[in-house]
Design goal:
This protein is mainly β. Helices cover 4% and strands 53% of the residues. It contains 1 helix and 13 strands, in the order E-E-E-E-E-E-E-H-E-E-E-E-E-E. An 8-stranded antiparallel beta barrel has the order 2-5-6-8-10-11-12-13.
């Protein structure tokens, strides 16, 4: 059983408090969500489970930031097991041929103390394109259970799925896909 006794938790909300170094994706506390227009009348949401990767960051030199993250296409989840299987099929993500969706890149442009833009190579369905993610810094602190630095961000971008070769059921299912990531990273 996990000890859930009260712990001291001190969170800083300025990027200057980020400890420089390599961080690993905390896959348990990171969510990779997507939404797409369905029948033109509602947004349909899904999630990719088990993201993994790393982030090298130094708040004193944000232009040197580098990132490599991926999510397995086979670990897609919606509120329908039938739809999950369909989305894994060759008609959609083709998880057998294209095992993961990745984002890699270097450099981050700070807009202000809490907001930045990260542009990287986004690979989906065998196609790679530059995609810009708006990034909001949430906080930095010390993981009360591990005693090591931890940081969190929220990032979002919009892509055209047809530009990545995923055109199933278009236009019934929209072309624009919003990607929303709530990311937690633990010091390596």
């Amino acid at each position: 059983m996990t000890d859930i006794s009260p712990q001291t938790l001190s969170i800083e909300t300025t990027q200057r408090k980020i400890a420089a170094g390599r961080y690993l994706v905390d896959s348990i506390h990171t969510r990779v969500l997507f939404k797409v227009r369905h029948f033109g009348v509602s947004d349909y949401w899904g999630e990719f489970l088990e993201p993994e990767g790393w982030l090298d960051i130094d708040p004193a030199s944000p232009e040197k930031t580098s990132l490599q993250v991926s999510v397995p296409t086979a670990r897609i989840r919606t509120n329908s097991a039938h739809l999950d299987d369909e989305l894994r099929s060759a008609e959609w993500f083709d998880a057998d041929q294209f095992a993961s969706i990745t984002l890699t890149g270097r450099g981050i442009k700070v807009v202000n103390g809490e907001r930045a833009v990260f542009e990287g190579d986004f690979s989906l369905h065998g196609v790679t394109k530059r995609v810009g993610f708006n990034v909001d810094f949430i906080g930095a602190g010390v993981n009360p259970f591990k005693g090591t630095p931890t940081i969190g961000f929220e990032a979002s971008a919009t892509i055209s799925r047809t530009e990545f070769g995923v055109s199933a059921k278009y236009p019934i299912v929209g072309d624009k896909v919003s990607i929303i990531v709530s990311a937690a990273f633990d010091f390596a």
